[in-house]
Model the fold of this input.
Amino acid sequence: MGTKSVSLENNRSEKMIGFKLKSGTVIKMIILTVTTTLLLSCSVLGIGGERQITTIGTAEETFVDQARDREIDALIWYPTQPVEGKEYGGNKVFYGFFADPDAEIAIPEKAPLYVLVHGTTGTWRNLSWLAAELAEGGAMVIAANHPGSTFFSNPTPAEVLETWNQPQDVSFMLDSLLSSEYSQYIDEENIVVIGMSLGGYTSMALSGATLEMERMPEFCSTYPDDGCRYFEDVFDTFDAEYYAKTNRGFKDDRIKAAIAFAPGLVESMTVDSLQSLETPILIIGAEDDKNVPPATHLIPMIDYLPEHSQYREIEEAAHFSFMQICKDGALEILEKEGEAFACEESGNKSRIDIHEEVIDLIEEFLADI
Done:
């Protein structure tokens, strides 16, 4: 399948090593029922067909955190009875998914809740392919556009490095959801956060990982990769007030498991916080990632993870391989904007194949906890 598995004890040589959780941390999860056939289905992806029948409903919600002066626009996915749907969340570059906005929720028993978190200058659409799969598998899903790191707020690198915002957004959305009419459908013992890039950091922060951002400028002077170059002009602004905000803990005990795709800032996390993580975490790296190269950002840190956490690495995957499926002609459109990287793969493996591996890894991880 082309996925590397790196042992926490010998992280550079072991292959395909699995890890079992401690017996006291067993969590009842609904395992994803997504199959390879479903993932590759053209109708589900909206490729080459006009599928009108869907079992996914959606609702748009805005969460207003008055204490932090933040309005957080989000989309909620949920299971519904088969209904006529329309393509949602796509554009000229990316495929969307089929759903019926405001369809009636059809959940016979309380379901798992997955919170999906985008990366730098991302949107809720980036992981919408996964949200649709999870909802078709019977889960509730929510993803938001996070002010200060979403495309729609045109963030600066300095705003993106206000790392405290995304974790607090997620906790506030959980507060709101669990005190709303949605709470009747949510199994509070089955809340999972999944993030990509900056959102991957957020998923780890909500699990208890903390930063020591004083280390980031030195790291980037040694390893000036694409991610570091994006932030390098901000380092001179770091001061005691900034460190006090960014190095805080954001653990949310309602999070029962976390999954991080190409997570940012792992190299700046403290060893103590990684060693003491109680929440099971699956980290998925991309072999050919130029923004978060696994060899420097991830692999040196994974020996500090507890036994109930896992690291996997997908061969021939790039940083943006975790995003939506690109349409024919997408590269030509993006090249004009200087953003072809969003749809470029590093090898012969297709993004659909990479997504299939991601689904398999998530299934295996949740099956073990």
Notes: The longest helix spans residues 351-367. The radius of gyration is 19 Å. Confidence is low (pLDDT under 50) at residues 7-49.
